[in-house]
From TrEMBL:
First-level EC class: transferase
Lineage summary: Bacteria, Bacillati, Cyanobacteriota, Cyanophyceae, Nostocales
Protein name in the entry: Riboflavin biosynthesis protein
Recorded catalytic activity of this chain's protein: FMN + ATP + H(+) = FAD + diphosphate; riboflavin + ATP = FMN + ADP + H(+)
Family: Belongs to the ribF family.
Gene Ontology molecular function, alphabetical: ATP binding; FMN adenylyltransferase activity; riboflavin kinase activity
Length: 352
């Protein structure tokens, strides 16, 4: 998949899904679906263009490839306005991986700066979508806003783009049970089950250890992906060696505590001694029993051992077992880890 950090690098013409797309959750996937026909000819979308529209927005030539394109912003708008760094459910490498798996041709990271925020909704469509991206089709979520002071709505985008004969799909908000919310119904909800899927609700679920809800909203397990680095090797002294995971600094970390997880070792698929998936128990926290002074992510692999230093692994979070706690002794900690391993094995065997 092609990744462009400026509009000068973009492959055109494009079919564009617009949004932040942090998490690439089920709602985002529905917004992306309408633009996944990247090889369709311009005749499909461009035959209705009149001569004035053609001069403003030249259509793709017949049989010319149209690139399915996700357009998002860097930095995150909230980070730009507050000046505070923001963590992501899907940092760039993960986002690329998820979009590639959906069949997206291209990711465009629009620089979110003063110049972009000064554009009116009409200017954004003309300068960015029409002139720079040669956009042939657009898809947005029902709650999408754009332009100076977020004045433009999804319906405004539809009306403005119509002047250039660019069709706009407005995708209604979706709940985790597959229902859709019409007319921007984004009020309060008694249960997450009936709330519209959103990045903020996924973050909220992860912060409370509600992994099942987060995974349901994502449509896949939440993952932590990083390189195994050398730790203090205290786990080895009590019979539970762990892989110490170094994560991207902008990765959103869930609630501290113990999790049942599945682990994949990247780049080891051809090794017959390494199973495609390994069951495990993960701890996120400061390790208070041994007076830890910094937060770490450590994974104990069940029924497998080997040298993982320097290897990249993917940890899929399946369930939250318990909060982190301080034990009176290493023996008590060892007994608890044994119990955690037993519970994790039971949960993971049911999930197969």
């Amino acid at each position: 998949m092609w990744v462009a950090s400026t509009t000068e690098m973009v492959l055109t013409p494009t079919a564009v899904a617009l949004g932040k797309f942090d998490g690439v959750h089920l709602g985002h996937q529905r917004v992306i679906q309408p633009v996944l026909q990247s090889t369709r000819s311009a005749q499909t979308w461009g035959d209705a263009l009149d001569s004035s529209a053609q001069s403003a927005n030249p259509p793709a030539a017949p049989q010319e490839r149209i690139y399915s394109t996700v357009v998002t912003f860097r930095p995150h708008p909230q980070e730009f306005f507050t000046g505070q760094a923001r963590t992501w459910l899907t940092p760039l490498d993960e986002k690329v991986q998820q979009l590639r798996s959906l069949g997206v041709d291209q990711l465009v990271l629009l620089p979110f700066d003063k110049e972009l925020t000064a554009l009116s909704p009409e200017e954004f469509v003309e300068k960015i979508l029409v002139q720079q991206l040669r956009c042939q089709r657009i898809s947005v979520g029902q709650d999408f806003c754009f332009g100076k002071q977020r004045r433009g709505t999804a319906r405004d985008l539809q009306l403005i783009a119509a002047k250039y004969h660019i069709p706009v799909s407005i995708v209604p908000l979706q709940t985790s049970d597959g229902q859709f919310l019409e007319d921007g119904n984004c009020g309060s909800f008694e249960s997450l089950e009936y709330a519209p899927i959103s990045t903020s609700l996924i973050r909220q679920a992860l912060e409370t250890g509600d992994i099942k809800t987060a995974n349901q909203f994502l449509g896949r397990p939440y993952i932590l992906m990083g390189v195994v680095v050398e730790g203090e090797q205290l786990g080895r002294t009590i019979g539970f060696p762990t892989a110490n995971l170094e994560l991207p600094k902008d990765k959103f970390i869930p609630r501290q505590g113990v999790y049942a997880v599945r682990v994949k070792i990247l780049g080891e698929s051809a090794d017959a001694n390494v199973p495609p998936e390994i069951l495990g128990v993960m701890n996120i926290g400061n390790r208070p029993t041994v007076n830890g002074t910094y937060s770490s992510v450590e994974v104990h692999l069940l029924d497998w051992s080997g040298d993982l230093y320097g290897k990249e692994i993917v940890v899929q979070l399946v369930d939250f077992l318990r909060p982190e706690q301080k034990f009176p002794s290493l023996e008590a900690l060892k007994a608890q880890i044994q119990q955690d391993s037993t519970v994790a094995r039971q949960i993971l065997s049911r999930e197969n």
